[in-house]
Amino acid sequence: MDSLVVSNLRQRPLRSAISILGVALGVALVMIFTGLAHGMSEDLQKRSSNVTAEIIFTRPGSLSLTSSSANLSTKYVELLKQIDGVESVSPVIRYFYQSGAWGVDQVEGVDWDSFSRMNGIRLVQGHPPNAPDEIVIDETKAARNHPVGSTLKVFGPNLYRVAGIYAPESGARAKMSLKALQDALESPEKCTFIYVKVKNPTDQVAVAKRIDQAYPGNKIQFTREVFASIESSIPGLNIFMRVLVGLAAIVSALVVMLAMHTTITERTREIGILKAMGASRAYIISEIEREALLISFLGLIVGFVLAWIAGFGIHKATGLIFQFGGWWALTAALIGLLGGALGALYPATRAANLDPVTALAYE
Amino acid sequence: MSTILKAENLEKVYRVGRVDVPALRGVSLAVQEGEFVAVMGPSGCGKSTMLHLLGGLLTPTKGRIVIDGEDLTAASDAQRTDIRRRKIGFVFQRFNLFPTLTAEGNLRLAERIHGNGADEPDRRREILRMLRLQDKIHHKPLELSGGEQQRVALARAVVNRPAIVLADEPTGNLDSENSEIVLKMFRELNDRFNQTIIMITHNPEAAAACQRVIQMRDGHIV
């Protein structure tokens, strides 16, 4: 083995492995968190894009990304149908609930006939939710071992029977009848929002204006705006990502710095030999930087593999969706490599400045 | 023969705490090209300090050193490193091979540091053959005997054709049999390649193999 860099790594396999793992953890953290955030928002956006209604009619504060309340009277259903330009309407209750240890999930109460007709949703198996204990689920949820006829715990202590499987996926993955959810939430004659489909989509602004004039004090949103960028609508998500990326960079740099600092202390005598052989400061720094970059590169590969395995495992266990983006992979790669290079710079400079005679005498 | 190394009135004072400790007190010497010189003297007489000064590892407090026409004492730290890289080969008592590299890897590292860009397998092979190491090139230092390690160190020191080889007690860690082999190699290098060698030794038999012996005492050449 002629390469000092590679042979040094092989000489101390445990320390090399720990250093590589340290870098890998930083890279994997970036990939897992950004992959999860991106995957979940993409999934929400994809499901939302299958809603063909142009307008959402709701009460101020009754609907956000992770919370909702059923405080809109269903009397508006008939009233909205009277507005000029409205083709159809469909009331929905969206309810968020604690889902195991992994966060929140959602279920929707819908008037199946109007909802499926408006949004082009069809049942691929089974029948619509009719009884209070019946739900329909989309194909993604069904694929997680929930066939028609099986029971499912959605919220509360009751079990719900899967009555049908629908496609394409749209909104919450589980839907029950509006009446059943109203009863379960003790909110009779209430819903969270009403989807409004207009006769001519180019008139949606005019129709929205007419609705606002007829029923002021309510909230009217266009679905194209609500679902345009769910990722950017989550408060602080981008800041969180950047902080995470910064922390990963610091972790990588510290791990490599510690590893190279220890290495250089151990190899003081060898650095003295290099100096006696006429190695310049630049040569010594470059040797140490090359070693750090090799550690970082290997950490990068291991980090990507770890992130992929973690994403796959978490998806299998919880259904959470990961989407690893090229941009974030590139960011993670740069962080790993730059963190390693910068972390090694101080020990490398220190080594290059060692006095050769003192270094040669080092025991 | 031309003078390849000239040292004039070298002084070196170490500062230990608040005390000045003189190690060399005005040493002058000239070494001709192709000369094999032994430096002898009791411990603490300044032999190693002189060798480190001649090799540019230390700077003198006073005096001048010229190696192959280049003034070492007028050079900056980077320039001294460059002179050392081009003109000097070191052999140490403790061999100082890189333990993670094979014998050949140690030689190639020296070539890379020298940076002449030329991979000279013929030269490397010739030296390894002369030092009877051709069967050991893929061995790491820990797989070699002390004598073999020192021969690899010697090969590493001469592989880039330095103007001078500076050897600091090269047989100090060897038994008499291996000492004899290593000394024979030094003589052969000197004879065959006209290699200039300055060797510190405590061993009178080793000194007897040299063309000239310099005796030192208390920081002086006597």
Query: Given the C-alpha coordinates, what overall shape of chain A results?
Result: elongated
Strand percentage of chain B lies at 25-35%
Superfamily (CATH H level) name of chain B:
P-loop containing nucleotide triphosphate hydrolases
The count of DSSP E runs of length 2 or more, i.e. the number of strands of chain B, is 10
Overall average residue pLDDT of chain B: 92
Helical content of chain A, roughly? Answer: 40-55%
Radius of gyration of chain B: 17 Å
Low-confidence stretches of chain A: none
Describe what this molecule looks like in 3D:
The complex is a heterodimer of chains A (363) and B (222). The model of chain A has no long low-confidence stretch (mean pLDDT 87). Chain A folds into 2 domains: 166 residues, no CATH class; 175 residues, no CATH class. Chain A is of the alpha+beta class and 363 residues long. Chain A has 14 helices and 12 strands. With 222 residues, chain B is α/β, with parallel strands linked by helices. Chain B starts with a strand and ends with a strand. Chain B has one domain: P-loop containing nucleotide triphosphate hydrolases (Rossmann fold, 3-Layer(aba) Sandwich). Chain B is globular and about 50 Å long. In chain B, the strands form 2 sheets. In chain B, strands 6-7-8-3-9-10 form a 6-stranded mixed β-sheet, with helices on both faces. Chain B is 35% helix and 28% strand. Chain B contains 7 helices and 10 strands.
Could you give the topology of this structure?
The complex is a heterodimer of chains A (about 375) and B (about 220).
Chain A: H1 4-11, H2 13-49, E1 55-58, E2 72-73, H3 75-81, E3 86-98, E4 104-110, H4 112-119, E5 122-126, E6 134-138, H5 139-142, E7 151-153, E8 159-167, E9 174-177, H6 178-184, E10 190-191, E11 193-198, H7 204-214, E12 219-222, H8 223-226, H9 230-233, H10 237-266, H11 268-276, H12 281-318, H13 326-352, H14 356-360
Helix pairs in contact in A: 1-12, 2-10, 2-12, 2-13, 10-13, 12-13
Chain B: E1 3-16, E2 19-32, E3 36-40, H1 47-54, E4 62-67, E5 70-71, H2 77-87, E6 88-91, H3 103-114, H4 121-130, H5 146-158, E7 164-168, H6 176-193, E8 196-200, H7 204-208, E9 212-217, E10 220-221
Parallel strand pairs in B: 3-8, 3-9, 6-7, 7-8
Antiparallel strand pairs in B: 1-2, 1-4, 4-5, 9-10
Helix pairs in contact in B: 3-5, 5-6
